[in-house]
Amino acid sequence: MAAQPGVGDLSNAKRRSAFWSRAPVRFAVIAVCFLWFLPTMGLLVTSVRDPQDITQTGWWVALFNLFDMSQWTLQNYANVITADGMATAFVNSLIVAIPATVIPITVAAFAAYAFAWMNFPLRRTLFIIVVGLLVVPLQMALIPVLQVYSATGIAGTFLGVWLAHTGFGLPLAVFLLYNFISQLPDDLFETASIDGATHFQMFTRVVLPLSVPALAAFAIFQFMWVWNDLLVALVFLGPQENVAVATVKLTQLVGNRGEQWHVLTAAAFVSMVLPLLVFLALQRYFIRGILAGSVKG
Amino acid sequence: MTGLAPDKEPFGWRGLLLPLGAVAGLAGVVLALVFLADSQASANVAAWFYDLIGNPEEAALLRAGTGNRLLAKVIIMVVALAVGVGGIWMIYTGFNVLVERLGDPWTRRLVPWVFVGPCLLLLTVFLVWPAISTVLLSFGVEVRLIPPSVEVVSGAGLSDWEWGLFNSQNHQIYWNNVIWLVVGTAGSVGLGLVIAWLFDRVRRESLAKTFVFLPMAISLVGASVIWRFVYAWRPGGSSQYGLLNGIWTSLGGEPVAWIQTPPLNTYLMIVILIWLQTGFAMVVLSAAIKGVPVEITEAASLDGASERQKFFSIIVPMIRGSLITVTITVAIFVLKIFDIVYVTTGGNFDSDVVANQMYLQMFQFLNNGRGSVLAVVLFVAVLPLMILNVRQMRRQGIR
Known about the structure:
The structure holds 2 protein chains of 2 kinds.
Chain A: H1 12-47, H2 51-56, H3 59-64, H4 75-82, H5 86-117, H6 123-132, H7 139-152, H8 158-181, H9 186-194, H10 199-210, H11 212-228, H12 231-236, H13 246-256, H14 261-281, H15 283-291
Helix pairs in contact in A: 1-14, 4-14, 5-8, 5-11, 5-13, 8-11, 11-14, 11-15, 13-14
Chain B: H1 13-37, H2 41-52, H3 56-63, H4 70-102, H5 106-138, E1 141-144, E2 149-152, H6 159-166, H7 168-199, H8 205-213, H9 220-230, H10 243-250, H11 264-290, H12 294-302, H13 307-318, H14 320-335, H15 339-344, H16 354-363, H17 368-396
């Protein structure tokens, strides 16, 4: 929230002139918001219009007689969910995204704890290598990993795509969680080890509960990343009906039914609705995650 | 720290049950993984269920690979979530229990490896080895892990690199990536900076920010669909339902097939990226701007500095660190851009980029050698930026 310093002690006339001097800024802010929302609004409006109308007039025309209820319909959604298979794709996205969020965070948290608070040979070197792997773009891994997957038969399975997302997300996850876990106060660990706690107990009962803010920030980020990913899903899971995730399905629809906007707009919104809700509900954690540097390179 | 003391009875029932439970749990994870790796398995379980409730027709359909797969879907979802979420914990807990039973010094030596082992293993399999293998493959040496083999692809050698570096079609692709890099990065960061600065001076700042930030939650595929609709084109004479052509024709222009028109199409796709990435730049830069001490800007105002002067002479220099970080991060993202091009033009109409061409080489032309060359090109392009980024991050983060 921007503070408004000193507005209270101004006289009325001064306040009025302050209002007008601020008008251009306010207008610019509203214009930016409007501009940013406009494309999405086109999608939303079109997705509830009658397919006949969509090709006859622009979506903005429908807004001129907003309360003519006969032009609105939910039939497009009913169609994409059933006939076009967006419901299956949605479930597939969930099956992919939830474990592909939990697994990398778990693996990374254990590793970050070990790098921060355990003694073992090559600890420092290994940690630098792990963080150094941030420089490898995932394109470098596609061909060899796919060959291994094809040879072992896990190409096109959910397990394959979980592991791929885990592998590609680990360097960043370890790095961020290490930054958090290594900052926890030393006394915590001294007291606990005097009490005879094992590392596993320390980790599950002390470190994890204290790390919830960091874990949550990364979890939201990883979930959105996996849900919105196209490339990894396309390569390791493929376009078959029983495994295709929402983004892959939507891409197929663009290919097959490129100009049928009643299908595309509704399908696009179905694929977007969950991340949008997660984002709106947990915006604060999401922003915290971004400021902590949890940004996919 | 009470309640943390380990169980000290050596011969208690837990002493026997815990390791057994750990072994059983690990075996369960392996079994469930086998189940998941078999794409027909869940359908078979569903068929067995249909047999149980006396519906052999449906069961037979499922076994044949057709029929109503909803039940199969639900079964696989339950197993998948249980394995994915519970299994990973089972693995760590199980191995930890087993290692703790070994007793010192082995416990002390091995527990750290239980903690970091899975991480190192996954990174080796998914990043270290593939990166080496991709570089080798780009030079025509194919190393396979399963089954282990080394093969020199006949006639390859440097020919894939020759194609990668000297083919004129590839020069177009690299040039497009340069345009993406420069315009996309400058656009996102510049707009993000101006918007952060602008929004800083109104009361409903967080609401306004949500509008600009919202596209961050939208997938690149979803954004591409949204903007394909904005750029939609119909032949002259028919009604234009695409927003851009609607505005354009109402201003008296002839309808334009925007995404089929090079080089305009590349810039219009960059607009999609800017629409998505500006929110990110805005959030980071906004936090930085709020870190600029008010005293400094107020002192400048008293000295008669204009808003413009304050922006360029105070705010921009003071948030330089954040500006650099954001620019590098966006630049890396832009260099690897794939989804927007894949969905919007498919790389046609002279709009191809490296990551899309790499995908096409892999799956359409089935030419892994050339795909590897493009992957390495991307790696080399990203490498300096990434090193800068890691350095910047280390300066902020690691002790």
